[in-house]
Amino acid sequence: MTKVRDLPTDSAIVEQWERIPNPSWQFVYAIMAAYGLRNHEVFFCNYDALRQGDSRIDVLSTTKTGSHEVWPFQPEWVEQFNLRQIQLPEINCDLTTTTLQRVGQRVTAQFRRYGIPFSPYDLRHAWAVRTIHFGLPDTVAAKMMGHSTAIHSRTYHQWMTRRDQEQAVAAALARHQVGKE
User: Fold this and answer.
1) Eight-class DSSP state of 85
2) How many whole angstroms separate alpha carbon 119 and alpha carbon 124?
3) What angle do CA 75, 129, 126 make, to 5 degrees?
4) Sheet with strand 68-70: strands edge to edge
5) CA–CA gap between residue 106 and residue 97 (Å, rounded)
6) CATH no. of 10-180
7) What is the pLDDT of residues 54-98, one digit of tens each?
């Protein structure tokens, strides 16, 4: 059974982003939050579409779960966090001399260094729960996260807190009301 996490709210995510003094590590944090990336995946993406005005990024096949396309949830974070300005820190990403795990450990170490009160994976998990609020089908969210729908449902649906349920119900009722007008 997966351990339940106290996931950060969107406002807490923004607040912590503002505290990171280094622009390249701010980018890593923000791209993980907006796109739900694993900590190593940030360094193994094609950002061309994002640079050219699209909101999509392409995770490369060299990652843990292979290539997949991802869109942001919250979409406004692309502009708010200036994510079209790709600024990756210089770390060793040559997989002949390092591993995906070591790349990910660098991200975790930076989170600790900056005193971020949650883990890099908490940003990924918050993204997954956020897609539920947006009404994104689980099959699509799972594909964007690079895993099966069964794993997605088993892992992320159990982290729905009362706050999450209330937000999801309010959003569903609002969509229903709009449909009646």
Assistant:
1) S
2) 9
3) 75
4) 45-46, 57-59, 68-70
5) 15
6) 1.10.443
7) 999 999 999 888 899 999 999 999 999 999 999 999 999 999 999
At 58 the three-state DSSP class reads: strand
Maximum distance among all alpha carbons in the chain?
Answer: 60
For 100-133, how does the pLDDT look when each residue is reduced to its tens digit (9 = 90+)? 999 999 999 999 999 999 999 999 999 988 888 8
Structure token pair of residue 28:
């890593």
Q: Pick from 106, 96, 132: which is nearest to 42 by CA?
A: 106
How many of the other CB atoms lie within 10 Å of CB of 117?
10
Tokens representing residue 74 in the block: 């919250």
Among candidates 105, 113, 95, which has minimal Cα distance to 38?
105
Integer Cα distance of 128 and 124 in angstroms: 6
C-alpha 34/C-alpha 13 separation (Å) is 10
Which of the 8 DSSP states describes residue 64? T
Q: How far apart are CA 42 and CA 176, in angstroms?
A: 37
Strand ranges, E, within the chain: 45-46, 57-59, 68-70
> Do residues 32 and 39 make contact, with C-beta atoms less than 8 angstroms apart?
yes
Q: Give the burial string for 142-153 (b: 16+ CB within 10 Å, else e).
A: bbbbbeeeeebe
Written as one letter, the residue type at 30 is A
Q: pTM for this one?
A: 0.83
Task: Give the residue extent of every domain in the chain.
Answer: 10-180
